Amino acid sequence: MSADMATGSNASEYVAKDKQVPALRANPTIAQIKQYEEEKMKRDKAVTCLHSSLIDFVFTSIMHLETAKSIWDELKSRFEGSERVKLVKLLTLKREFENLKMKDSEIVKDYLSKLLDLENQMRLYGDVVEDYKVVEKMLINLPEKFEAKVAAIEESCDLKKMTISEMVSKLQAQEQRHALRNDGDMEKTFLAMNKGKHKGKGKMDAASSESGPRVRFPPCTTCKRTNHLAEDC
Q1: What is the rounded CA–CA span in Å between residue 169 and residue 153?
Q2: Which residue has the higher pLDDT, 93 or 48?
Q3: pLDDT tens readout for residues 10-49
Q4: Where exactly are the structural domains of the chain?
Q5: What Cα–Cα distance (Å) separates residue 201 from each residue in 173, 192, 194, 195, 204?
Q6: How many Å from the N-terminal Cα to the C-terminal Cα in the chain?
Q7: Exposed/middle/buried for residue 219 (C-beta within 10 Å: 0-12, 13-18, 19+)
Q8: Per the confidence metrics, is the pTM higher than 0.85?
């Protein structure tokens, strides 16, 4: 990966050559002040571009470095290595990217985060994954519950022009509808079960009240039973 690719050509000199912003002279002209501010913006842009291309654990390990050149040198020494090592690492990342599937229990946001982490790592090794490839990758590897939505997206949208954020928005809307539908089904099932219990309990209570309490008599001297008087035996 080149410095131009990482930061843009207008800021790459702050990465490759460790260019410094010249100090302002005393009593500068408006043009000199403008030039000074533009150079500061280029310097800061170089650092920002490098930071934005890093995944979290890499960023936290280099955030103490202040200049774009020092950040770039650290990343090169850490990730580039020999061409052969670089190629092996890149192939490994590509394989992980291609084989990564979304689990049924996973949400769209978490799956996308995994894909973008791999995409950022591949970028560090000089391989840029276009947005449409991420879009296609997600659509191919979504669980069955998204099948109808995927078909609708493929029919109505130009996948080459579709951004990742647009696709995620559509999928999350489907995800929310699916979750609400499941919650509604569970609520109906719960109410039906409880309704049956209350209904059964009501019938038992009614039967109990209709039959009334049983009257017990002293044991009969003849048959020893307690459901009648001795004189009636």
Answers
A1: 12
A2: 93
A3: 566 666 666 777 787 788 888 888 888 888 888 788 888 8
A4: 3-79, 83-163+172-182
A5: 42, 14, 11, 10, 5
A6: 109
A7: exposed
A8: no
Residues 148 and 154: their CA atoms lie apart, in Å, by 10
- Between the alpha carbon of residue 81 and those of residues 7, 59, 85, 86, 125, the distances in Å are 21, 19, 6, 6, 10
Give pLDDT, residue 202: 53
User: What DSSP string describes 29-69?
Assistant: -HHHHHHHHHHHHHHHHHHHHHHHTS-HHHHHHHTT--SHH
In whole angstroms, how far apart are CA 216 and each of 54, 161, 220, 232? 87, 88, 11, 14
Number of H helices, E strands in the chain: 10, 0
Q: Which two tokens stand for residue 76?
A: 């090169």
**Which of 102, 8, 109, 124 minimizes the C-alpha distance to 55?**
124
Phi, psi at residue 134, to the nearest 5°? -65, -40
Assess contact for 137 and 92: CB atoms under 8 A: no
Provide the token pair at 63. Answer: 């955030």
Alpha carbons within 13 angstroms on the beta-carbon side of residue 29 total 3
> Cα 48 to the chain's mean position, in Å?
24
Would you say 118 and 126 are in contact if contact means Cβ atoms under 8 Å apart?
Answer: no
78 vs 62: CA distance, rounded Å: 11
Let me know: does 56 contact 2? Beta carbons within 8 Å.
no
